[in-house]
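Note to self: keep these together.
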Amino acid sequence: MNPSSTSIRSRRFLLALSLGVLAACSDSGSDKPAPAAANAPPGGSTLEAAKAAGKIRIGYANEAPFAYMDSKEAKVTGESVEIARVVLERMGIGEVEGVLTEFGSLIPGLQAKRFDIIAAGMYVTPERCQQVAFSDPTYGVGQSFLVKQGNPKNLHSYEDVVKNPDARLGVVVGAIEAEYASKSNVPPGQVVVFPDAVSALSGVQAGRADAYAATALTVNDLMGKTSAGSDLEKAEPFKDPVIDGKDVRGYGAYAFRADDKAFAEAFNAELAKFVGTEEHQKLVAPFGFTPQELPKGVTAAQLCAGQ
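Structure:
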């Protein structure tokens, strides 16, 4: 559970009212390269430039609890963002600027240097590993469906969608759930693609989709922070998809440009000292993360290799 246009930002602004999130203009991004990268001396690295500038841009997709705009604090927050702030501070980079980007445009935006890190809880997959350099994961989590109250079409797995030709499954553009649907043999005609989680939630409410597939944490957060509780629910029980003979559990991490591997390695070294500590657990608890979501030694190298 990946370059924003004026229409996307406008729609996000309107829909965010129900979630209490407001994408401030300073965090809505631009098509300009990240300042740190742009100011790098000839032959200098992104990390050196970021340290010299004291700040860096991160790309995020406004998906709680991983990365989203907190209207009360007027800043980007979430599990991925707050961990990044701690790690980057320890690396000598004190300021983080968010660039709001549709999930499916995060990797292209990173490659185009609109920002220097993707901090959006992005799953590490072998396909994405061919495009970007990942840190080790900060969490591992299973899947879930958001459905209407009573789950009228009795959808508790991707297989249930396949069995019911009238069922429509909502996914976010570029998110891993579209791949899960495809590999679970959900017909393309039964898949409805939304630009973001807020749109997907509204789509289920309006009947454009019968279920929205996302991480269990995303569904929990949507249910806890919106007014959707009166007409939507989390599909329970739920069976995670089996892909290529393996039970699916997604692992989220930070992504860097392929030519910024030195930056990724330096970030990863500090990340390893932090994830799993009491300080880390206290930091992410408000976003719904518990010890059950710890990556438990799983590495990016293993995930990139398809293990």
